[in-house]
Amino acid sequence: MRGQDDFRQGGAFGRPFALASAALLASVCAACGSNAATPAPAAPAAAAAAPAPTGTEQVILATQAHLRAAPGDVQAMDTLAAAYLQRVRELGDPSYYDKADSLLASALKLVPGDPEATLLSGTLALARHHFLDALAWGQRAAALDPHGADPLGVITDAQVELGRYDDAVATVQRMVDVRPGLASYSRVSYLRELHGDVDGAVAAMQMAVAAGGPVPENVAYVQVLLGNLFFNRGDLASAEAQYQAALRSDPGYVNATAAMARLRAAQERWSESIALYRNAVAVYPLPQYVIGLGDALSASGDARGAAQEYDLAVAEQHLQEASGVDVDQELALFLADHRRDMGDALAAAQRAMHDRPSVQSADALAWTLFQSGDARGALPVAQQAHRLGTRDALMYFHSGMIEAALGMTAAARSDLDTALAVNPHFSVLQGPVARATLEALPR
Q: Are 88 and 76 contacting, i.e. CB atoms less than 8 angstroms apart?
């Protein structure tokens, strides 16, 4: 593992940098139990008729039995809560959040200063996208464990999603100083990516891969994130190499399967993409995978099949909402992209901007305003989305379309050109729209 001095020599802190998607990192600490620094394994469900329990299932069954005999064992409550959070990773079943929440409340009632239950409560709040709550829990956990790295990860994730980027930079620096490794380097990578330093983001994620973790999923997880960085800058060959490496590290890893599905869609290998998406959704029906499947079906000409998947994506998002997950940002983007229930989309985007005022929420609100017919209102919000200099093709596409509608030809041409230069494969649905709009702009 490289230390923080080596990390600084790479120029990490001479400019702003970043994390690895709060949605993904929300379970980094939770699944690993005490002093967790990296994600726990997310084994896909076995296909046999009577599968043997997975490692997580075994932990759940054994800990449940122990708690029946010793109902006041707070450490066992923490272990079971962590296993429930890990189960969400494996199955995409958000009902486990309520189970974890109940256990953690009981543990903290018995031992109000329990550091593990406090940390896990922060992780649960992150997973539910309750970022102000997560920040408060992370700060409490840091007070209970002032020399620990894990609370700093919860705090960083919350600060990023709340748009407090300078604070996040300072916090993740402390995290690297305390424990340079997979969890801290991957967060640095995301902050760099947000600030437009894509080469630096790749370097930090490569360090995360090299640092590794105690189980195969740890490495596969960051290999997928590294592949995503390559994909997002249009380097499909390097992206595929990382996704295939992740599948070698952890065969059947669902995140890598879904990433390969997106890559095959970018290559217009529709039958392969659809089959891979179906495999991923069968294991883990995450809305983004279901939407990806719908988009691949739509782009391949199967409008009816796409509509069915989009309906399923909405149902999955409502299921998450019922389990306390705030999906406003994600729901708004999906509805706006597909022009469904635009009143609901706009309300969700406005709530997201209020609750998590990040550049992603600004981008979601700008696009939703535009798709609702308010290009003039969308423009200043889109400018907010670009405030960090993020090299995100979708953000440039959104602002370019808004500018085109307002007759800002030079700005529209610049942003649409940038979107396609950053990643010509950024969306199987919106990529063709970007090209057609660019071609129609007066010269």
A: no
Q: Which of 92-96, 116-120, 305-309 has the lowest mean pLDDT?
A: 92-96
- The Cα–Cα gap between 127 and 294 comes to 25
Q: Is the pLDDT of residue 392 over 70?
A: yes
420 within 8 A of 442, measured Cβ to Cβ: no
- CB neighbourhood size of 52 (10 A): 8
Smallest CA-to-CA distance from 250 within 405, 39, 393, 66 is with 39
Domain that residue 163 falls in: 1-43+53-191
Q: Report how far apart, in Å, the C-alpha atoms of 54 and of each of 49, 59, 93, 188 are.
A: 14, 9, 16, 32
Q: Is 341 exposed, middle or buried (0-12, 13-18, 19+ CB in 10 A)?
A: middle
Domain end point (choices 169, 191, 213)? 191
Six token digits for residue 419: 């979107």
* Predicted TM-score (pTM) of this structure: 0.86
Place of tokens 């005999």: 69
CATH code for the domain in which residue 178 is found: 1.25.40.10
**How many domains is the chain built from?**
2
Out of 174, 191, 208, pick the residue that ends a domain.
191
Written as one letter, the residue type at 23 is: A
Identify the weakest region by mean pLDDT among 166-180, 210-224, 275-289: 210-224
